[in-house]
Structure formats: structure tokens, C-alpha cells
Amino acid sequence: MDEENGVELLQRYRRDRRVLLDFILSGSLIKKVVMPPGAVSLDDVDLDQVSVDYVLNCAKKGSPPRRAPPSAPVVGQTPILSSLSISEPLESEQVEESQSLSKSQSLNSSQPKELTVDDIDDFDDDVLTEVESRRYSRRVLNDASDVVLGLPSFTTGITDDDIRETAYEVLLAAAGASGGLIVPSKDKKKDKKSRLMKKLGRKEMDIRTRRALLSAMVGKVGKRMDTLLIPLELLCCISRTEFSDKKSYIKWQKRQLNMLEEGLVNHPVVGFGESGKKANDLRVLLGKIEESESLQIATGDLQRIDCLRSLRDVAVPLAERAARGDLTGEICHWADGYHLNVRLYEKLLLSEVEEMLELFKSTWRILGITETIHHTCYAWVLFRQFVMTGEQDVLQHAIDQLKRIPLKEQRGPQERLHLKSLSCRGSKMMENAIVVAMVARRLLLEEPELAMQSEPLTDTEQIELYVSSSIKHAFARIIQDVETLSDTTNEHPLALLAEQTKKLVKKDTSMYLPILSLRHRNASAVSASLIHKLYGIKLRPFLDSAEHLTEDVVSVFPAADSLEQSLIAVITSTCEEGSAEAYLKKLNSYKIEIVSGTLVLRWVNSQLARISAWVDRVIQQESWASVSAQQRHGSSIVEVYRIVEETVDQFFVLNVPMRPGELSSLFRGIDNAFQVYTKHVLDTLADKADIIPPVPTLTRYRKESGMIKAFVKKELTDPRLPDVRNSQPFCQPQYAITHLNKLEDSIWERWTKKYHGHSANNSRSSIQKDSFDGSRKDINAAIDQICEFTGTKTIFWDLREPFIDGLYKPSVAQSRLETLIEPLDMVLNQLCDIIVEPLRDRVVTGLLQASLDGLIRVILDGGPSRAFTPADAKLLEEDMEVLKEFFISGGDGLPRGVVENQVARVRQIIKLHAYETRELIEDLRSASELEMQGGRSRLGADTKTLIRILCHRNDSEASQFLKKQYKIPKSAA
Question: For residue 456, which of 470, 466, 468, 442 has the smallest C-alpha distance?
């Protein structure tokens, strides 16, 4: 670092040496200067090779040198920098700076004089007398090289001299915009020099720049000079022939090209957007313009002209990008980045005098400087001057400028962003201050008196005291700011305090703690723990008083929880595992999740009670009519889902910390609501016992009974039985279970998104296994029950007369099952028209089961009016095949395997009808003995089935056996 400062100081001395030599040789101190061979003016002389002693001797004698000045010895990088050849320029610049400061102290004069740039040339060099009188009152200037703006360095290698010259060009353009720019006449006195001119630009360059700016305005009616793209216009209007040598021209051109690149591409405030490719094109064109100087004159000039034309097409749109409310073309952001603008304005202020201040303000339009930026930069420049000179008046002037800076509440967001980039690099200074403080403490503790007055502290404890003191003061300031902000905003003070405290943590961990951690490796944990404690003291009364989810709770809890998580993250990320655990154990956790969870559970319970009441209401109002032809479910299930989804939406809008327990409670409540709804739907169904007619009394068949008139069902309508052809209770559960899956996926997706990470996955694995399983089981069971009820009602109620009462009467041959296919097909079509597709197979399966139950009822419990012979078994088998194929429907119905499995139980009974009475009696006798031993008969039937088949046999052998063995009476006549 010392070596870098030495090099920078050496470069500064050399630059000031050249300025001083140029001033002496071009002024009136030497009457005549004889140029070396090949040199036309001082611009052609390498002043680094001129001896200062020789020039000073000539000036004292007043005679011109008779020969070329001898070369100055080469100054190497030596620690001895106090020789005469480099100290004189330093004193000269010192006098100039002090003169500038003395002028600036009269800013409050009552009658300021307004000047233009042309007045710069009219400053009389009588001030040189005062300069000479002060040359010998020498003061040693302090080194201010470390006091620099914390801005990015220029990638193009722009030097301070380049900045000064460009700043002067900006000043000329600003003066031209107000009509104050003219080309100086040649008959002005040559001995009148402007001090600002000597610093910012030479006479010839000044004239060239003025002429170029005036030429650039030709033909641009209504356009202001300060909206020009200054470096581009100067490149187009100033040719190589206006320079005394090619080296000076190339240097000047390189500066303009660098300014274009730095101003438009490297540090832009306005984003490029779609013009990003143009930024790359601009760099290419800048390179080609620079390359043209190495070509032959004709070829190089042609390439330069073409490139300048293309450069204008690319650079102007970039410069006129609208931003911050500007109108395109009204403001020319030729130096778009504030990094370059501030550096340019700093160079202007370094040469500030009272009379020039108003002129400098005219550059605000070009550089985008505001009053806030001006006061900040001006205070910065004065502070640097104070560092070098030690003048208290300069420091007071800097303080006055700082007081003029508006408060942060009065600044716009863009202004705050720019001011943030002007911070000083003070980290090294802070680190050194800590070292001084630690060493000073150790030295003081060596004094016996002081050692007895205070307890000895270790370095770690001392750092903790520093951290504690600074954090407490910063937190106190935040509380004051929050009290002010809470009056103007609707946010709760604790929420604002949490947000501001998070900003304090971020600033603390990025700026101060890295330095303090060099002396205390757990300084970050100490700071975070203290901040956690200070905010917890403010938060605790609010937590204790929270009883419901109010707006204040919803505002404070998330902010406080976020702050706590940030502080825990700081501790865990900056400490070793063991140390982090120790600090975390000492934290008095806010337990926001616990308090918040309790409040959320109260809210969830109240919402679930509301859902239950709503379910009862919509069930009572349900008409069991389809919503539409496409939506065959009733309106009640839609209303239930609407209220459930509203509750879920409100649950996730609650921006408060939650645990998986609250989500589980929500799942259980919704699950219970759907179970209640499903029970209500099933309650609308009648009991199957009310549909299925009672089984006839078991009697022996006798011939006379076959003539008994069959029972005729009265055409009565049971009000307890819903009409399945007009109402669809089974469509409600199907809609519910379909949307239940979507609802569950939606809840988990939102939970995972809100509480992403490992905790969300763990909670899902623990809750998912029983989230909606209860309602799923109940709904599926309800669907099966409704489908079974629908089939049973169709066969045993709607088709009772042709099926249950009329089939196989008076004989199988006279009443075949095929006569029932048509009414079955009609009923089946009606059902398929009013059910949703996913339910089709389940409803048809229910009808198949009911049809087979009805067939078994007919052939086993058909009553005394039905009789079967072994010959009827073949007809029964044929009827069963007809029924089976009806439900298979050539592949359009139920799967054949499903139907076969259902028909198997009927086929076994039909086979028993094929046996002779004697075989059945013998098997019945053996079955009775085997059943006592836990076995079955040879025919594979139980005794009850065999008895029922014998009761329907039209022969005396079966009748006598049943009478003798089982005392079964004959049917009544």
C-alpha cells in the first residue's frame, strides 16, 4: 500500500512540475524562449526533460536561454521526494488551492457577480503578485490520497487530466446553452491568463473547443447546446490539422473515445434493454476510429469519416434513452453513469470560486446533477481540502454544505441511489481505529491508578463492549425513526421496527462485523444476540396480549419471525457448530410459531363450525336436480366446495408463521365436513328393507296352490323412496371425490410454496397419510351403497311386478326371463343418461347384482305359486346366459370377467335344480350330518338351499320328505 501511495504521489509531483514549467515559460517571467530543433510551440517540448533549475536561473536573470535547456535528470522511485525540482510545483499548486479556498469562503456575499465562460479570460494576472507574496509562507499539506470517493475505477484508463479537460468542455457547452459562448478575439492581451483555464485547458484547445461547439449547433434550430453529445460533436468538428503534432491529436482523440465508452456503456444508469447489441457495436466503432490513425492518410480519413457517421447512428439513441421522467431528446445522457458525472463535477468544484458557482450550476443539466448531489460533492471537496490544509474555516464551510443536504425522506429513490455510491472507503480507517483503541486500552491499564479504578478486560470483552454500545445506540435511533414513520404510515410500529432492524443487521454484517471479527471471531453472534434481545423486549408485551388474528397480528408476526430467522442465520453462518449452538441456546426465542399456531387453530375451528352450519343449510335446500345437462350433480355439493375453498384461500392469506399442526387441523376439519355431507346424502335414501318384499313363508308345494291368484302390487308411491331417474344422489359423491383430489393437491402446492424446503416435505409425509382418507372411504362407500340401492330399487320396486312377482309363473316355459330384457334395457338407458361416465360401470354392476339377487329370490324363495322340475334347469341356464350377455353387451358393457364372477353363484343354484328329487334328498341327509362336523354336502350346497329347492319341487316324494323330516306345512289353498 505504501509503495502504491508513493507512485501516485510521484505522478502527481511530475504533473504539477509540468504545469509550473508551462506557466513560467509561457508567461512574462521570461521574455523569450528559444525552441529546440523541430519544435514550434511548447506543446512540442517534453517538459519532463527540462531542468527546473535552468529555467529558474533564466527567469531571475530576465534573459532568454541562448541554447536549448539541458535535460533534467530522470527521477526514479526514491523515498526522498523533497528535492527542489519537485517541491516547487507542489508549493505552486498549494498557493493556487489556498487562493481558491479563500475565494470560496465568501459564498454568502450579498451581491454575487454573474459571469460567463468568456469572463474567465478577463481575470487579470495581478493575482500573481499575491501568489508570489505567499510562496514563502509555506505550509506542509497533508496527504489526502486515501480520502477518495468509493466509486468504480474507469476501465478505459481515464486519468485526472482527462477528467479536468472534459470537465472544461462540459462547462463550455453549459455556457453555450445560455448564450455565453463566443470565440475569443486574437487581440486580447496575452498576459491575461485565467487560473481556471490553466488548470482545465490550454488556450489553443479552448479556442478549438469553442469553435467546434458553435459549428455543431449550425443547422440545429431549437436545440440547446447542452443537449449535444459533446465528445461525439468534438470528434466530428475538430480535425487533425488543427493540432500542432499528431501525438497531441491522438491523445486528444483517445480521451474523447474513452469518455464515450465510459459515459454510455461501462456504468449506465439507464438499462440498455433492446439496445444491448448497440453497446457492443459502439465499442467496435470506437476501436476502428482509433485504428484509422495507423493507416495511410487517405484510407485512414475515409475509415474515420465512415465510422463517425456510424458512431452517430449508434451513440445518439444510447445517449437519448429516456429515464427518470425525461423526454427523449430533451436530456442527453452522454455521461449516463453517475460515477463519471460525479468525478467531472468534483473537478469543477476543486477550482470553485464564488463568482464561478452559478456558471458551474449550468452544467447540472448535462451531468444530471441535483441540488442534493451538488451540496454533497461540494462538501466532499471542501472536506478533502480540509484534510490537506487543516483550515478550520474550510471544515466549517463543509459542515454548512452538509446541513443543506435534504433529509432522506425528502429525496427521491434515484437520488438516494446515487448518494449511496458516494460513500468513502473507511473500512481501513475503522480497522486502524480499533487497533489504536485496543493498544490505548492496554497502555492505560499499565497505569496503576487507572488499573485499580476499572476491572481488567480481555480484548474479546472489549470488542463485545464496542459491539454492545454501537448496537444499542443504533437501535435507539431506529426506534425514534419508527415512531416518526408510524404516524405517517398504516403499518404497526413493531412491524416497522422489525424491518428497520433487519436493515441494521444487514449493514452491520456487511460493513462493521467483518472488521470486528478479526479481533473477536464471534462478534457477529454477539451482535445478533443483542439485537434479538432488544427487539424481544419490545415484542413480548404484544405477544402476551394477542388473542385473535387481528390486522396488527398479521402485520407484526411475519416481520418479527423473519427478523428472528435472519438473526439465527447470522449466528449459524458465522460461528462454528459448537459456538453457534451455545449462542442459540442463550436466545430467548420469540416462540412466534407457538403463539401464532394457537391463534390460527382458533380461527380454523371457527371457520370449520361455519362450514358445518353451511353444509346443513345447503342439504336442507337441495332439490336433487342437476345443475345442467353437462353438470349432472346437484347445487349443494358446489356450494360446499365454494365455502371450503374460500376457507382454504383465507388460511393461506394469513401471512403468519404456521406449523404442520395447523395444516393438519385444517385437513381434519375439511375431511369431517365432507363426511358429514356424505352422511346427509345417504340419509336421503330409503332402507333396503322397505324396498325388498318379505320372503314368503316356507311351505311345501301342492298342485292346487298353483291356481292361487298371484299377489298384485298396488300402484302406490312411497314418499320415502327417491326417484333415481329424476334425482342423482350418487352424482354428488362422485363430484366430491373428484374435486377432493384437486383440493388436496392445491393445498399441498400452496403449503410447499409458502413453507418451501425440508420442513414442508416432512410435514407432508406426516400428514398426507391421513389427510382426506376418512372422507375418501366414506364417499366411496356411499357411492357403492347408492349404486346398490339404485339396482335394488330398480329390480325389487320398479320392476317388482314383471320380475319378482311374475317371472316363471305359472311355469318356466310360459314366462321366460327374456321378456324382462326390454324393460331392463329401458331402465339402464335412463340411468346412463343421468349419470357421469366414471359412475357408469359401478351403477351397471349394482343393477347386475340386483338382477341376480332377484333371480335367486325367484328360484329359491318364489313362494307356493312357483314349481320347478329337473327339466327346467336347462331353461334357467339359458335365461341366465341371456341376462349375462345383456350386461356384457358385446363388449360395450361390463367386462366379461366381472359378469362371470357375479353369475357364478346363480349358476350353482341352477345346477341343483337339475338333480332328481331322490339325489337332492340323499344329499340333504348327508349334508345335515356333515354340517354338524363343519363340512358341506356332496353337491356343494348347504341344507337351507337344498330344502328351498325341494319346497319348489312338484312331486309327492319331496312333499312327503319335507313333511316327515322338517314338519314343513303345505301351502294354504
Answer: 442
* 561 burial via Cβ count (<10 Å: 0-12, 13-18, 19+): middle
pLDDT digits (tens, 9 = 90+) for 278-312: 778 888 888 888 888 888 888 888 888 899 888 88
Q: What is the mean pLDDT of the chain?
A: 76
Residue 485, judged by CB atoms within 10 A of its CB (0-12, 13-18, 19+), counts as middle
CA dist 32 → 16, 47, 62, 691 (Å): 23, 17, 9, 134
Q: Which residue has the higher pLDDT, 380 or 536?
A: 536
Q: How much is the pLDDT for 133?
A: 42
> What pLDDT sits at residue 5?
60
Taking residue 877's Cβ as centre, other Cβ atoms within 10 Å add up to 16
The Cα–Cα gap between 871 and 910 comes to 11
Cβ–Cβ under 8 Å, residues 893 and 844: yes
Exposure b/e, 36-71, CB count within 10 A at least 16 = b: eeebeebbebebeebebeebbebeeeeeebeeebee
Q: Is 85 in contact with 72 (CB distance < 8 Å)?
A: yes
608-685+722-780 and 799-966 agree in CATH topology? yes
Taking the CA atoms of the chain, what radius of gyration do you get in angstroms?
51
The three-class DSSP label of residue 227 is: helix
Quick one: pLDDT band at residue 91, thresholds 50, 70, 90? very low
Q: Is 608-685+722-780 a CATH 1.10.357 domain?
A: yes
Burial status of residue 104 (CB atoms within 10 A of its CB: 0-12, 13-18, 19 or more): buried
**To 10 degrees, the CA torsion angle through 539, 540, 541, 543?**
90
Q: What is the reported pLDDT for 353?
A: 54
Band of residue 191 on the pLDDT scale cut at 50, 70, 90: very low
Q: Are 771 and 663 in contact (CB under 8 A)?
A: no
CA distances from 927 to 14, 380, 458, 857, 953 (A): 128, 115, 101, 22, 19
Give the start-to-end residue ranges of the domains of the chain: 2-111, 160-369, 371-423, 457-590, 608-685+722-780, 799-966
CB-based burial label for 783 (10 Å; 0-12, 13-18, 19+): buried
Residue range 799-966 in CATH 1.10.357:
yes
